[in-house]
Specification:
A hairpin with a 2-residue loop joins β1 (about 5-10) and β2 (about 15-20). This protein has helices at about 30-45, 80-100, 115-120, 150-170, 175-180, 190-205, 210-220, 225-240, 245-255; strands at about 5-10, 15-20, 50-55, 60-65, 105-110, 110-115, 125-130, 135, 170-175, 185. The chain is of the alpha/beta class. The radius of gyration is 19 Å and the shape is globular. The chain folds into two domains: about 1-205, 2-enoyl-CoA Hydratase, Chain A, domain 1 (Alpha-Beta Complex), CATH 3.90.226; about 210-255, Lyase 2-enoyl-coa Hydratase, Chain  A, domain 2 (Orthogonal Bundle). The chain is built from nine helices and ten strands. Helices cover about 45% and strands about 15% of the residues. The strands form two sheets. The protein has a six-stranded mixed sheet, with helices on both faces. Bound molecules: ligand LHQ.
Amino acid sequence: MMASETVLVTLENGVLGLTLNRPEKLNSFTPEMHLALRAGLERAHEDPEVRAVLLTGAGRGFCAGQDLGDRDPRKGGPAPDLGATLDSYYNPNLRMIRALEKPVVCAVNGVAAGAGANIALACDIVLAARSARFIQSFSKIGLIPDAGGSWALPRMIGEPRAKALTLLAEPLGAEEAADWGLIWKAVDDATLQDEARAIALKLAAGPTVGLGLTKQLIHEAATRSLDAQLDAERDAQRQAGRTADYAEGVTAFLEKRKPEFRGQ
Ligand code: LHQ
């Protein structure tokens, strides 16, 4: 894997920790940080030892979106092609988080703005520190909500709230984000990392194939009829029922003991 200080990588009991690490710029994205995150997500996909991912940020922010210092318009030159930036950097990472057949936990440790907010919202289980804020800041600088925001927000919270958040770019606190169903939980700042880590460790000790199929089914439900989804559940259950973890889960239940899943 490409070594880069801009994303810190750890592996503990099946949990791949990915920590965005440009704290002095609130972990805003540079090309180097995008590529480091991509390398981490590729490892999560390829390494069988990885059974869950924990994404968070170093310092007082989670991520302030694109590094706006990177392309200062005052320097002149032709207008940038932001579509190319999305194609090359943001969209591959968004697709990898969603498609990863292992759960991704996100600990939003502080402000999450622009694409930084939407990368957090793309994760499977999102916890936020009570002091954290989510800001769809794009409209403040003439842009549209990218990194999947225009897709995820109306699905998660409905059009009225999605439009107000994106058009007004007002900060949404962690508690309200949880009340709205945008994230799983708001927790005390002091316990965020421990709580997120405990969830990630629990998932990493879980029946990985079944968890991955569950995530995929929930994603696909948004665009399927009930009929088609029932068929998809049949196919996925057939696959899950053939795993060693299913046999272990049932055996452990019958033997009144805790299952020892191996992710197979
Ligand atoms: C930053 C940033 C930042 C650089 C804080 N860049 N330095 C865009 C274009 C291209 C392709 C496709 O996609 C996108 C998607 C996007 O993400 S667009 C949205 C970009 N992000 C923003 O507009 C957010 C800009 N940041 C803010 O509004 C504030 O910093 C927030 C509300 C996040 C936090 O406010 P504060 O807590 O008051 O912190 P601060 O503003 O003092 O920031 C601390 C430092 O971090 C400061 O540096 P300095 O050297 O003065 O201490 C900021 O300049 C720097 N920083 N965000 N995005």
